[in-house]
Amino acid sequence: MLITFARALSGSTLATIRRGDGVVLELPGYDRKFRVPHDLAHAVTERELGMTGGVFGSIAGGGVFDNMRVVSGHPRHDAAERSKRLLAANKVSLGIAELLAGVVHDAVEHEEKSTLERARRSWGMFSTDPFPWTDQQIEATVAVLAELAVEYQATGKVVFTWPDRLTSQVPALSGAKRGRRGRI
Q1: 153-169 residue pLDDT tens
Q2: Residue 29 in contact with residue 14, Cβ under 8 Å?
Q3: Which of 21, 110, 121, 149 is deepest in the core (most CB within 10 A)?
Q4: What is the pTM of this model?
């Protein structure tokens, strides 16, 4: 999946997403007051930390959020139902992604120094399991976003590749019957 983050006429960010199935979507940002686009922080955080159930893994898997629109391509006949199922299944992961992307975003936007502590605290809101990422992974994620923020500031655009391995899988229909009907 290829994502282009570009400065919109409104001063905010517009992400144009080219999915593997040929569908092209737009995701508007609501971040005019920030130097660093929040959705770019999501993409970087989710990719660098290997999160399949965040915003962009969900979109890659067929999820479409309410504020998105299809620009071109032909969605599947059951796209809306699959999207609903996928986003419901990823609800907790999306929450974790939101918190961690916020931590990484703040680290770059405001040059916050308490990134590691905030990341662990945010994780603790969702799980009692040990924090699954190393200090080096969090620091590297912040460094990648800082680098891309410089590019965005200079050009007003960042082209970002989302790896196929981080595509969220659509859960199977519950109670669906599989196979052929018996012959009479």
Answers
A1: 999 999 999 999 999 99
A2: yes
A3: 149
A4: 0.90
